[in-house]
Amino acid sequence: MAGTAEKRLVAFEHVSKMFSTGTLALSDIHFTIQEGEFVSFLGPSGCGKSTALRMVAGLAVPTTGLVTVNGKTPKQLVRESNDIAFVFQDANLLPWRTVLDNVVLPMELRGGSRKEHKETALHALEMVGLKDHMKAHPRQLSGGMKMRVSIARALAAKPKLLLMDEPFAALDEITRQSLQMELLDIWQKEKMTVLFVTHNVYEAVFLSSKIVVMSARPGRVSSNIDVDLPYPRELGMRTTPKFSEYVDLASGHLEHGADRRELG
Ligand SMILES: Nc1ncnc2c1ncn2[C@@H]1O[C@H](COP(=O)(O)OP(=O)(O)OP(=O)(O)O)[C@@H](O)[C@H]1O
Questions:
Q1: N or C end of the chain: smaller count of CB under 10 Å?
Q2: ipTM computed for the complex
Q3: Residues 171 and 247 reside in one and the same domain
Q4: Residue with the nearest Cα to atom 28 of ligand 1?
Q5: Domain range enclosing 227
Q6: 201 and 130 fall within a common domain
Q7: For residue range 115-161, what is the model confidence (pLDDT) as tens digits?
Q8: Ligand 1 centre from 21 Cα, in Å?
Q9: Can you spell out the DSSP letters for 38-59?
Q10: Do the beta carbons of residue 48 and residue 26 sit within 8 Å?
Q11: Burial class (CB in 10 A: 0-12, 13-18, 19+), 195
Q12: What are phi and psi of 8, to 5 degrees?
């Protein structure tokens, strides 16, 4: 993998979440994520993947247990730094702003020099291949391009930890594949840690260095799978026996919530 897994970045320590409605969304979640990893939360709809991700962003708090990022509570870290960025399934762009101004917006809200913001935004747009569209408005973009803008907006903050909640779920397969390749490329170049929510087994195996498989509600971790496939990953890898083995392994854990196993 691209990042060397040396330092613990995210920790879930016996985390449970009960909503005020009485829904137990997560039950005794316990695992750690090392710096530089690409980790997917894989699980069926409603198993608490988004809730777990939102906790890492400080947007939700555990009922019991503790979530830390770099040894701090996410809320504290978000207050003090731009280390955490979030990409949602919906690109959430402001229609009246240009592509460039959408990417600039979070920086603008934090204050500082417009010139520097613009340079940072242009660099981020270049990373996602959209520099030539900086003056376009969201209505002029395809779904994949809008998602690229959303990713650029997150990257502009130069986050240490990029949180992505099913960012490609609404896209067609071809666009999804090219964005997966671009994301892996950026992850390797920028040496970030990525936490990615999906219910797509193929996507999880293709992208991840580690898959946290979650079982149906209340969400529990049914297994941690270390995906020992080399980076950079090529699309052709999807037809290899080793890839299929990981898909079968993850699917098996999804279905049965079985114990931790690893491929040799
Ligand atoms: N604010 C809330 N109040 C009450 N219940 C909630 C709230 N947010 C989520 N839930 C419930 O908690 C459970 C987990 O939801 P969550 O969105 O985390 O699951 P998920 O695995 O991300 O689902 P999906 O893949 O469908 O997006 C669900 O049963 C959901 O209805």
A1: C
A2: 0.97
A3: yes
A4: 46
A5: 1-83+160-264
A6: no
A7: 999 999 999 999 888 999 999 999 999 999 999 999 999 999 889 99
A8: 11
A9: EEEEE--TTSSHHHHHHHHTTS
A10: yes
A11: buried
A12: -70, 125
